[in-house]
Write a structure and sequence with these properties.
The chain has about 190 residues and is mainly beta. Helices cover about 0% and strands about 45% of the residues. It contains no helices and 14 strands. This is Ig-like domain-containing protein.
Length: about 190
């Protein structure tokens, strides 16, 4: 007698060999298989800071084959528990993985730059016999703040009633560009 169970999207198909005859039986009970619990990608990160990406899953009775991270559809990190070494990162502009602080459920990106902005996707795959795969994604935008506050130029030392004031307000370099708003005596 042989038995094969396939767990995919929590549906089960059972094949039984009995007396040389293969029969397919649809099994409606709750199936235990890999589940994605949460993918966490910080929506905004400051340039030069670290960003922690999390991919939380529950294997239940499955065994982990791999966890793979992609940025804009390009693979940059892979964790395979049976490989030696278990972690491998691929060169991708703007991405620097801290292997000492990364594992099967989190990836730490260090010293992020503007090229690290994009869509991040985590894909978790189980081993045989289920070969179940789940994925989730999130967008991260890397921002660069100006190094100093805005500068107002064009002011005169003395003004008379009725004078026209022509001023310029300039922000330091930033990404995205800073939005400037004028206030007179604390009022917009």
């Amino acid at each position: 007698t042989c038995l094969h169970v396939l767990c995919e999207r929590c549906m089960a198909f059972m094949y039984r060999c009995s007396g040389g005859v293969l029969r397919q039986v649809f099994h409606c009970n709750r199936v235990v298989c890999l589940k994605l619990l949460r993918v966490s990608v910080p929506p905004y990160t400051l340039r030069g800071e670290m960003a922690q990406l999390e991919c939380l899953y529950d294997l239940e009775k499955d065994r982990l084959y791999s966890v793979t991270w992609y940025k804009d559809h390009e693979e940059f990190y892979r964790y395979v528990p049976k490989a030696n070494p278990q972690q491998h990162s691929y060169k991708l502009e703007g991405i620097k993985v801290d292997h000492h602080r990364s594992d099967s459920q989190k990836v730490l990106l260090k010293n992020v730059n503007l090229k690290a902005s994009g869509m991040y996707r985590c894909e978790v795959s189980a081993e045989a016999p289920s070969f179940t795969s789940v994925h989730g994604e999130g967008r991260m935008e890397v921002v660069a703040l100006p190094k100093e506050g805005p500068q107002i130029t064009g002011e005169e030392r003395i003004y008379q009633v009725g004078d026209v004031i022509n001023l310029n307000c300039t922000s330091g370099k930033s990404f995205p560009a800073a939005r400037l708003k004028w206030y007179i005596n604390g009022r917009p």
